[in-house]
Design a protein that fits this description.
The protein is of the alpha/beta class. It has helices at about 20-30, 55-65, 85-95, 125-140, 170-185, 195-200, 205-215, 235-245; strands spanning about 5, 35-40, 75-80, 100-105, 110, 110-115, 150, 190, 220-225, 255, 260. The protein has one domain (about 5-260): TIM Barrel. It contains eight helices and eleven strands. Helix 4 runs parallel beside helix 5 (about 170-185). One zinc ion binds near residues 7, 9, 79 and 226. Its EC number is 3.1.3.15.
Length: about 260
């Protein structure tokens, strides 16, 4: 089982100041086999800007790839906000550039977002969580441009609720449908280790859900820290790789020009 970090942000993302070179050095220090940069692009984020200077981003990662080629494998990817209101623009952007890997993430639903809380207004926790999973299902059915679904239960981080945890069982029928759709389309999931910070014991999603994905036939899996600062690169990736092994996965998946290696 290789150890990878396939979800990292740098100063090309609207919400990070991190220098990509520092990420590479940290990844080497952490003994990772391979990394992929996945800076943000969201078309309709209502408050902050998630524009992406794709050309310069490409050039900078290419030169790091060359410079460090004897020490670590470096890939160039993107975390694309899947948003049904912008489907054509999103698919077009991905077609235009030679991304190695695309994370599809749900950050915005009909012009509302989670971080500042707009999405939750007037909803019970159950309503909000159900709507989130239903929208995720619609997106995984509609979009083809991504390789793995990012942070399946991302919503657990947010919301004005005292207990933010997701009761997966309540929505298991929808989550199963998400998994089945991904499997049938040849797409995978990630475990996002930033969950270890928020939930203390596991990533997004938890390993019961990863087991569920595996039992339904899912085999495409990546690991990502969602680092916005270099000190977090590689954090908990080895723990997740070990868990994957226990579940039964042979290896993590890596990608080149959006195809599995
Ligand atoms: Zn994300
Ligand atoms: Zn991210």
């Amino acid at each position: 089982m290789r150890t990878i970090d396939y979800h990292m942000h740098t100063y090309f993302s609207g919400d990070s100041e991190a220098n990509p070179r520092e990420h590479v050095l940290k990844a080497i220090e952490m003994n990772l086999d391979e990394i992929c940069f996945t800076d943000h692009r969201d078309f309709d984020y209502p408050i902050d800007s998630f524009e992406l200077d794709v050309e310069n981003y490409y050039q900078e990662i290419q030169s790091l790839k060359e410079e460090f080629k004897d020490q670590i494998k470096i890939k160039w990817g993107i975390e694309m906000g899947l948003d049904l209101d912008h489907q054509e623009e999103i698919e077009n952007l991905i077609q235009q550039y030679p991304f190695d890997f695309v994370i599809g993430s749900i950050h915005v639903i009909h012009h509302t977002e989670f971080y500042y809380g707009e999405f939750f207004k007037g909803k019970t926790k159950e309503q909000a969580h159900r709507e989130f999973f239903e929208e995720t299902l619609k997106c995984v059915k509609a979009f083809d441009c991504f390789n793995v679904l990012g942070h399946l239960d991302y919503i657990v981080r947010y919301g004005p609720y005292e207990d933010k945890t997701v009761d997966h069982q309540k929505y298991q029928d929808i989550i199963d449908e998400i998994f089945k759709t991904l499997i049938q389309k040849g797409k995978g999931i990630e475990v996002n280790t930033s969950g270890y910070r928020d939930l203390k014991t596991c990533g997004f999603p938890n390993f019961e859900q990863v087991q569920r994905y595996y039992d339904l036939g899912g085999r495409i899996i990546t690991i990502g820290t969602d680092s916005h600062t270099s000190d977090r690169v590689g954090e908990n990736c080895l723990n997740v790789a070990k868990k994957y092994q226990e579940i039964g996965f042979d290896d993590v998946s890596t990608f080149t020009q959006r195809k599995r290696d």
